[in-house]
């Protein structure tokens, strides 16, 4: 067996091994809401927005978004959260 054939055989064996490992592993659905209780924060993260970006879309400050996500009373009253 030539060196190139040996390398190709090794690469094929690794590909097969990796494919077998992936097929055998159970899949787990990850739900961010199980780890973060605030729905505003969950939706912001799922939308891949920073607090600053969301604030710009809502025409408010990043601090307001932070307060809403932390459920501070003053922010909830102001934005009816």
N-to-C span:
70 Å
How would the global form be characterised? elongated
Structural class: mainly alpha
Helix and strand element order: HHHHH
Low-confidence stretches: none
Q: Any idea what the radius of gyration is?
A: 24 Å
Instruction: Characterize the quaternary organization of these chains.
Output: single chain
* Helical content class: 55-70%
What average pLDDT do the residues reach?
79
> Can you count the beta strands?
0
The percent range for strand residues is under 5%
Work out the helix count.
5
Largest sheet geometry: none
What does this structure look like?
The chain is mainly α and 81 residues long. The chain has a domain at 32-79. Helices cover 65% and strands 0% of the residues. It contains 5 helices and no strands. The protein has helices at 3-24, 39-46, 51-58, 62-69, 73-79. The longest helix is centred in the N-terminal third of the chain and has 22 residues, at 3-24. The model has no long low-confidence stretch (mean pLDDT 79).
How is the secondary structure organized here?
Elements: H1 3-24, H2 39-46, H3 51-58, H4 62-69, H5 73-79
Helix pairs in contact: 3-4, 4-5
Please supply descriptive tags for the structure shown above.
81 residues; mainly alpha
Give a brief rundown of this model:
The protein has 81 residues and is mainly α. It has helices at residues 3-24, 39-46, 51-58, 62-69, 73-79. The protein has five helices and no strands.
